[in-house]
Design goal:
The protein is of the alpha+beta class. It contains two helices and five strands, in the order αβββαββ. The chain is elongated and about 50 Å long.
């Protein structure tokens, strides 16, 4: 597989939340594309502090086109939003659902 230029074209005008960036990178060693989402989020242990977090996931090999790419990106954003919600979901000061322990 070679680098697919469509991703850069599709993402050129994409916007999400302030502090969130989305890109696609091609790894020439594995010949795979990776969706990279970088976000500024509150630190779960000190919510007044904002920290950068990066999540990368291999893009599935497909040839369906732009609509399928947007659906995949949307599903990844949903997963990240749910993860961040679980990080801050506290009852009596205790985390109820810890996404780092598989409690979802």
């Amino acid at each position: 597989m070679k680098e697919d230029p469509r991703y850069k074209v599709w993402l050129k005008d994409f916007q999400y939340k302030p502090g969130w960036k989305v890109g696609v990178e091609f790894d020439s060693r594995s010949y795979m594309h990776f969706l990279r989402i970088t976000m500024m989020v509150p630190n779960r242990d000190n919510p007044r502090e904002v920290i950068p977090v990066m999540q990368a996931s291999a893009l599935p090999e497909w040839d369906q086109g732009e609509e399928d790419f947007w659906r995949y990106l949307r599903s990844r954003l949903h997963d990240l939003e749910c993860h961040e919600a679980d990080e801050m979901f506290l009852v009596n000061g205790k985390r109820v659902f810890d996404p780092h322990k598989g409690e979802r």
